[in-house]
Structure formats: structure tokens, C-alpha cells
Amino acid sequence: MATFPRQAHKEKLMEAIEQICSNLMLLSEMGCKGFDCSNQSLHIVSGWGKKVYNQVESLEKIRKDIGECDRCRLSKNRRNIVFGSGNPHASLMFVGEGPGYEEDIQGEPFVGAAGQLLTRIIKAIKLSREQVYICNVVKCRPPDNRTPTADEIMACLPFLQRQIRAIQPRFLCTLGTIATKSLLQIDEPISVLRGKFYDLGQIKVIPTYHPAYLLRNPERKRDVWEDMKKLMNAMGIDTGKNP
Ligand code: SF4
Questions:
Q1: Which of 24, 27, 188, 209 could be disulfide-bonded to 32 (CB atoms 3.0-4.6 Å)?
Q2: Which atom of ligand 1 is nearest to 155's Cα?
Q3: Which fold has domain 59-235?
Q4: pTM of this prediction?
Q5: Which of 65, 139, 154, 157 to mutate to test the pocket of ligand 1 (most atoms within 8 A of CB)?
Q6: Looking at the predicted structure, is the pLDDT value of residue 20 above 90?
Q7: How far apart, in whole angstroms, are the C-alpha atoms of residue 20 and residue 140?
Q8: Whose CA is nearest to atom 4 of ligand 1?
């Protein structure tokens, strides 16, 4: 835990340097030979980043747009829309399939038995639920916890995509087949996809098993720990001992 904030700052600094280098190369290709460092010019340049920052929509705006959504049939039996929770500036997002019984009642993601296991997984990688962001592909509970259908996923996916753009995590861990297929558009079993990194724009995505699957198949916990060690290594978190 102690190394993470420093690592996060270092990563942000490296990102900023990379961005500056790429902008300088672009300006150079456009024929720029140097810079005017007058107060007026510096004032203009200092506004560039703010302009880009302001273009990122907030999670509040996305939640407001969802409203009392009835864009798919999952609206009929839900008690609460489960939007997501955690750090809106998280470096790491976890994305599951959809809310279950407890989540539907409480309006919070991953608060049932599978959620408690996810909390333990997050602690094992030396982070807390408050440091990451957690949400699902569909925001309403499918009846009897059935798998969401393709049209339900298509109806809700734009909200998840907007959440990802708003948070801009560096890493994203998909939990289970539905989250992985929905975001990566790869039609392979989770057993094949897990434990490898995939690019989603600038974001590194690592799929792993869903905690609910682990509750039914505890022998797969070892695989998830192997996946989490890869994630920790990529994030610069000391893996230490097996929990
Ligand atoms: S699952 Fe998503 S699209 Fe369907 S009703 Fe709920 S919020 Fe709307």
C-alpha cells in the first residue's frame, strides 16, 4: 500500500512527459522551430490542459443521464439501479457482469458474498475498495441472476463505456466472461482469455474469473491470484507474499 501513491505519481508524471514529447514532435512536424515564452503565450499554453480536462464528463452527469432508465427489460424487476462505486479518478477499475440480489437491494456493486470475495482480492493486491472503481456491464439485476441477454448488454454498454472514459483508468480488470466479451469483443472462453493483457485504447485490460464463479469453484482462486500478481507487477505494486 505504501508504494502505490508514489508509483501513481510517477506514472502520472511519465504520462505527462510522454504527452509533452508527442505534442512537441507534432509541432515540429508542422514546422514549429521554437517558442515564444512571453506571459501571453504561457497563459494560452496553460489553458490547453484545462480545456481537455473539462471535456471529460463527470460520473454524476452519466448517472443523471441514466435516470430511472427503462431502456431494456431489466428495468421491470429491479429495485435499484446499481451504477458503480469507488474512486472517480481510479487507476484501476473492476467490471463485473451485473448486480445480484444484495446489490439490487442496496444499490451498490459487489456487496454480497461475491462482493466480499472481491474486497479480499482487492486487499490482496494492496489496495482498498476506495482506491479502485467497481461497476458492472448491466446496471439492473437480471431476474434470478440469469446471464444478461445480448440486447440488454447492448442497451446498457454505452453507460459503462462512458464511465470508463470519465474515469480514464490505466488498468481494468474484467470479471468473468460477460464483462470480458462485452468490452474486448473477443469470443473466447474466460479460461483462455484470463491472465493476459489486452489493449482497450490506452487502457490495459486483464480478464480474470468472476468472484461468484470462485465461490462455486474455489480451486480456481489460485489462477486469480496468478492474474492479480501480473496486474500488480504491471501497476508497480510489490507482490510480496501469497496471501
Ligand atoms: S440494465 Fe441498463 S439499459 Fe437496462 S434498464 Fe437498467 S440501466 Fe437501463
A1: 27
A2: 3
A3: Uracil-DNA Glycosylase, subunit E (3.40.470)
A4: 0.78
A5: 139
A6: no
A7: 41
A8: 72
